[in-house]
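Open question from group meeting: does this chain pack into something compact, or does most of it stay loose? Before anyone orders reagents, we agreed to write out a predicted structure and look at it together. Recording both the input and the output here so the notebook holds the full record.
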Amino acid sequence: MRVQYRSWRSRLPKGAYAVVTGASQGLGRAFAEELARGGVNLHLVALPDSGLERVGRALQALYDVSVETHACDMTAEGVVESVCKLILSRGQLLAMLINNAGVGYNSTFVDSTLRQNETCILLNNLATVKMTRLLLPALLEAPQGRILNVASMAAMFPMPFMPVYAPSKCFVLSFSQSLRQELRGTSVDVSVLCPNGIRTSAEAREKIASHGKFGDLFCMDADQVAQAGLRGLVRDRAAIVPGALNRAIAAVSRIAPRWLVYSVVGAFWGKTAKNPTRPLTVPAPNLAQ
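Structure tokens returned:
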């Protein structure tokens, strides 16, 4: 089932803009395309040399929407502030923020580097908080504003072999739910997306394939996850877990003994743990963002 794009036009003010981070590939790019197809103008943020400008030009040509691209490293000091200042200076109607950018690794903690851990926290947590805080006043001025933060099913339980990534996504989940409650009664709705595996890069597909049928059962394509996220956002769902089987896992994880959860997760991710010389960028750490 695809998002009904007419509903996007009716639910978002005409000419409104959405901000999508991590938009050059994977889930972020899928979000950007779904929104552009629905007639939503875009501000896209991603790393330099990641193909962001090419994505922006393609979407603008295909869907006749306005697309501005901002190539930057969101973990660098002052960068998020500068990007938000630039976006706000345009004087456009801002109606949506999708905090999708993230990073992580799949290895033992002792094999990780300090830089990997720091980058994971700076991007997954601090950049999300900064983007949200700086753009929230503009979203509150819109007739209807929406925030979608991308967490992960990794937010729902501790994960051996991803010991910093999982807590960083737990932060995103808790932050989103707290902010949602604070903003009740305002014009801004907040949802959080918690996907399992996503088939994106060749590396992500290789990791999925290494888990055989089990990996394939619980994984989805990026466009499927983006559509599920946007459907949940339009319907004002607090937490969105795409896929019936993944929702079952989420439910079971809340009542299963912790020792069992740790054993299963450790066996699953220990199989694909890698040396930190090859850091994985989200969506790869949990096969997905």
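Observations to bring back to the group:
The CA atoms of residues 218 and 246 lie 6 Å apart.
The chain has one domain: 5-286.
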